[in-house]
Write the structure tokens for this entry.
Amino acid sequence: MKSINKKIMEHNEKREWDNLNSENKSYTTNVLHCFTYRPKWIRKSWIKEEVITWELIRALEILPRIYFLKNLLVLINKKNPSCSNICNNLINDLDKIKIEPYPRRGEKGIEYKQKSDIELSFGDNCLWIEAKVGLWNKEDIVREIRGEKDSPNLNKYQNNEIIALLPESQDYDGLRISWREISKSFEKANKTLESDFKDISIIPGYLKISRELIGRINTFKINI
């Protein structure tokens, strides 16, 4: 009986959550809601792939795009010249880019819930970023990226690519950037931001968010 009541309560809570307006789903409540259904994730949450990915997404959403998002796109372009057309198009419309957390692949059936990690898109251009921490079997990454490449929702965009966000030492031959490179790009953005705004009182919140993410990446338990 207790088990049945628990399932009913969980179903009702999930339904209430789904019916909430987006204005009532803040960043913090989204995180708490996720952990409600995955309580085992709370243990050592600071080394979880999902948590540091959330923090990257949040930073890209909040920090000034001309400094941080632009630097990320420049980094992707530099490391993966085949993406230059997409990256340059997105850089030209920084203010219009949609930053979508965990975009659905658009599959049907048992693959319905499959997602990537980050979408950067506008017009006919779209980049998906698939984030990994720790070291994976190379073939597993190749298989996952190949599956995402065939996704209906990605292929709605005429120009599309998938970038793997990996530890520097991960064996992978496809399009990629590393967590450490993201850390360096944020450090560079911080210096430019501080140089452009001599009145430092304008930007302490931005610097705090950026430095927190840099610290998380640089001190992550698993080498990223």
